[in-house]
Amino acid sequence: MSIIVTGAAGFIGSNLVKALNARGETDIIAVDNLARADKVANLTDLEITDFVDKRDFIDILRGGLDGEFRAVFHQGACSDTMETDGRYMMENNYRYSLEFMDWAQERGIPFIYASSASVYGAGKVFSESREHESPLNVYGYSKFLFDQVVRRRLPGTAQIAGFRYFNVYGPRESHKARMASVAFHFSNQYRETGKVKLFEGNEGFGNGEQVRDFVSVEDVVKVNLFFLDHPGISGVFNVGTGASATFNDVAAATINSMRRARGDGPLTLEQLKQAGAIEYVAFPAQLVGKYQSYTRADVTRLRQAGYEEPFLDVAQGVGRYIDQRIAKGEL
């Protein structure tokens, strides 16, 4: 039976296909948009049975997609939080997802999809409940609205599981450009200039002290596979570590991982500042009021669903990521 993965050439999607391949799953229909041809690099080491352009795929669904399908991993979306074309965002992220879910439900096929922690906006409570949800942009709204539909549809004819990803980092994200993780950008900056630039303080946070829940794509993939293995579990779930780290923490982990690779010892945050390896730049005016300065996933519901695996912390996860980038010759 086939598994459909949308966004298969993207960041999380390609890591998911790789993990499925490691399990011996190769009957995979990969769906994506390769208008940006550089994304094909994420597919070249993967085993799939077919590739379908995302624009063609919805027409194929409408016309009747033949075959037997074990599950759908709907990871594809426009993830640019600065996108201002609301019509495009809602058509791409909301309407497309709705039609795809309807197709899966009519056939009793598990539907596992990507939501986003952006649904919480500037809130300080990150639990899966309506009173805590107030997205700041149309990207967050597109994800929020789809989650609302899912809640009304449950229980469905088959599993529907949505994951509110927090700040995901890891291999296969280079095509994301400015939307790639801070660990990606920090490591590039340090390689090129010997320093990392962080935002100055805002909204009561000190320089580089804005706080996020940074989660490794390795852990994100494990959560997806857990739900594949437990098709009786449905709902909307946070996927983060349940802990927070500052941007200073990520910068220090990044720099010290790169120092370790060249045989140098670790430095404390203060030592890195004194050495000029970390510097602060003015907080961008265009992000004022549109920026999450604090996130921390409440993973209670995920744990209650039976997911028991520990999450990598920033030091562990970023260290592994930097080692992988160095091994591939990217740093």
Helix residue percentage: 25-40%
> What would you call the structural class?
alpha/beta
Strand content: 15-25%
- How far is it from the N-terminal to the C-terminal residue, by CA? 40 Å
In the sheet with the most strands, the strands line up as 3-2-1-4-5-6-11
The count of β-strands is 13
SSE order, as H and E? EHEEHEHEHEEHEEEHEEHHEHH
Q: Tell me, briefly, the overall form.
A: globular
Largest sheet: 7 strands, parallel
Extract low-pLDDT stretches.
none
The whole-number mean of residue pLDDT values reads 96
Tally of contiguous helical segments = 10
What is the radius of gyration computed over CA atoms, rounded to a whole number of angstroms?
20 Å
What does this molecule look like?
- The protein is α/β, with parallel strands linked by helices.
- The chain contains ten helices and 13 strands.
- The strands form four sheets. A seven-stranded parallel β-sheet has the order 3-2-1-4-5-6-11, with helices on both faces.
